[in-house]
């Protein structure tokens, strides 16, 4: 169609079929790019009507149509110089985004969440940090910090020493393997950067130990390299009652959420992204052979692997964030990546909230002795869950945007929390399949370790030939069936809508600021 370069010609052409609506959007796209001065309320209204046209919902390609429509509204908001039209297009997107049960919600959220905000992360170059591994004894380190050996605790790959007369904890954090010095150095660089830029006024940044300018140590040629630092005991107080404090009250839990949501929002605003508030996977067993390493891409809505296990030791605590090796600097125009990373953080908080309630009785998990699934919904409180979500969103918003919001504008919040409790409280999805290809990627020791971890006896394992056939293990709870979709899609819509709210508010502030000069 040779459009007549007018809104009227496009409106007169539009029909009601899926094909005609799709063609209409292509014509709109051509018009606004060639003649942006012809954007008007009628053209915006036409796009809105297509987003509202629910008869297309069951079409296989409906999401593409709605995404195209939402993208055009975003494009209009960016290219038009008319403030009224800019506000109108964004307002329509916000209305669709906040209705998280609407099929147009995610396309609208994605459009808002990928608006062109300006984010400039830091460039950290520490040329003065040597990358060699310095041989040292444990006694020398204790002499360096001025403490005698204290109570020893092992948490993951960190060895902690606690001292009776001090709130400080001495930490030996070991590399994942002997050759993994890179991530240790990365953590040191971020710790030094955060210290130098006064972030330690907001949260605890470790005091790293260095000897003769060296930061990475080993005890001998066969030991894994490690870094060493001092932190307050609160650094290892986890929000769900693990670590150095076995019981965290609900008020203490809320305080941890509030503090860390604001911190992470502030860091994101400066282009400093913590990429692993908790480990998120679509499929852990396939991480060694998949191109995406099995990492969870929440915006694709797939099944979420071992959600409860992932939430037990989050990288947030009473003193703030931790595990700085997972921090990345963001700059540039990859808005989809920024949207996804912010969504990762929001999603992580929601899962941590769910884990807090489940950890009120950690023995109730998985398949019971009589073969039925665990139903732990009675451990949850709907109003307390909702309050925790409210605190996270408000503080994350404030951290990123620099001002408060009084209410979260989303519809169906009560329904969302009910669905979260239903899916997080019942262990309906426990199965995981170790494919033949994944078995072949493991050595025999790794293979046996996985099977032992998930219920197989040593005698059973002896009878199993690695790589012969797929093997089912019960590694959940998961959110969704193996290689399926997430069992609570409303959570994905909510994460997208929340991320859209935070980012679009920043966009509006930035354009308002720029237009004032």
The gross shape turns out to be: globular
N/C terminus separation: 42 Å
Average per-residue pLDDT, rounded, comes to 90
Radius of gyration: 26 Å
Q: Give a short account of the largest sheet.
A: 5 strands, antiparallel
Written as H for each helix and E for each strand, in order along the chain, the element string is HHHHHHEHEEEHEEEHEHEEEHHHEHHHEH
Please give the order of strands in the largest beta sheet.
2-3-4-7-5
Poorly predicted sequence stretches spanning 5 or more consecutive residues:
none
Query: Total helix count?
Result: 17
Strand content: 5-15%
Structural class call reads alpha+beta
Fill in the keyword field for this structure.
five-stranded antiparallel β-sheet; alpha+beta; two-stranded parallel sheet
Topology:
Blueprint: H1 7-13, H2 18-34, H3 41-52, H4 62-79, H5 83-98, H6 105-113, E1 134-135, H7 138-145, E2 151-155, E3 158-162, E4 168-174, H8 182-196, E5 207-208, E6 217-218, E7 226-232, H9 250-269, E8 272-274, H10 307-311, E9 316-317, E10 320-321, E11 327-329, H11 335-358, H12 382-401, H13 413-425, E12 431-434, H14 436-440, H15 444-453, H16 458-462, E13 471-474, H17 489-515
Parallel strand pairs: 1-6
Antiparallel strand pairs: 2-3, 3-4, 4-7, 5-7, 8-11, 9-10, 12-13
Helix pairs in contact: 1-2, 2-4, 3-4, 3-5, 4-5, 4-6, 5-6, 6-17, 9-11, 9-12, 11-12, 11-17, 12-17
């Amino acid at each position: 169609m040779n459009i007549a370069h007018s809104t009227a010609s496009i409106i007169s052409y539009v029909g009601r079929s899926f094909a005609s609506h799709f063609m209409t959007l292509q014509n709109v796209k051509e018009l606004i790019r060639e003649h942006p001065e012809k954007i008007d309320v009628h053209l915006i209204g036409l796009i809105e009507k297509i987003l509202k046209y629910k008869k297309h919902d069951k079409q296989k390609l409906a999401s593409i149509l709605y995404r195209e429509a939402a993208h055009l509204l975003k494009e209009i908001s960016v290219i038009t110089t008319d403030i009224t039209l800019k506000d109108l297009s964004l307002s329509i997107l916000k209305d669709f985004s906040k209705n998280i049960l609407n099929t147009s919600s995610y396309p609208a959220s994605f459009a808002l969440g990928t608006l062109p905000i300006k984010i400039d992360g830091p460039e950290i170059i520490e040329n003065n940090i040597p990358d060699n591994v310095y041989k040292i004894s444990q006694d020398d380190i204790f002499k360096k910090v001025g403490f005698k050996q204290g109570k020893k605790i092992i948490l993951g790959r960190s060895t902690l020493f606690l001292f009776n007369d001090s709130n400080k904890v001495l930490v030996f954090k070991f590399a994942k393997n002997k050759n993994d010095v890179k991530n240790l150095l990365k953590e040191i660089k971020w710790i030094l950067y955060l210290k130098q830029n006064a972030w330690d006024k907001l949260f605890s940044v470790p005091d790293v130990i260095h000897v003769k300018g060296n930061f990475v140590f080993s005890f001998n040629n066969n030991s894994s390299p490690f870094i060493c630092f001092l932190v307050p005991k609160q650094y290892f107080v986890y929000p769900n009652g693990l670590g150095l404090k076995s019981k965290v009250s609900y008020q203490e839990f809320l305080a941890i959420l509030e503090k860390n949501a604001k911190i992470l929002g502030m860091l994101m605003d400066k282009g400093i992204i913590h990429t692993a508030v908790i480990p998120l996977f679509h499929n852990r067993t396939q991480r060694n052979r998949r191109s995406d390493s099995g990492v969870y891409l929440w915006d694709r809505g797939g099944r979420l692997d071992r959600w409860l296990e992932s939430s037990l030791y989050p990288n947030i605590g009473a003193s703030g964030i931790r595990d700085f090796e997972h921090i990345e600097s963001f700059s540039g125009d990859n808005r989809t990546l920024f949207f996804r990373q912010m969504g990762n953080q929001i999603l992580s908080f929601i899962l941590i909230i769910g884990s807090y309630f489940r950890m009120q009785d950690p023995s109730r998990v998985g398949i019971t002795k009589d073969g039925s699934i665990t139903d732990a919904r009675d451990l949850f409180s709907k109003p307390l869950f909702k309050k925790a979500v409210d605190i996270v969103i408000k503080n994350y918003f404030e951290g990123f945007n620099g001002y408060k919001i009084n209410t979260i504008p989303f519809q169906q919040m009560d329904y969302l929390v009910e669905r979260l409790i239903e899916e997080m409280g019942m262990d309906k999805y426990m199965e995981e399949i170790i494919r033949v290809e994944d078995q072949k990627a493991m050595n025999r020791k790794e293979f046996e370790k996985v099977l032992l971890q998930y219920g197989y006896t040593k005698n059973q394992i002896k009878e199993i030939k690695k790589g012969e056939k797929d093997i089912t293990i019960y590694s959940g709870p998961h959110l969704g069936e193996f290689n399926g979709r997430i069992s609570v899609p409303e959570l994905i819509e909510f994460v997208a809508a929340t991320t859209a709210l935070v980012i679009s508010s920043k966009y509006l502030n930035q354009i308002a600021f720029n237009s004032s000069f």
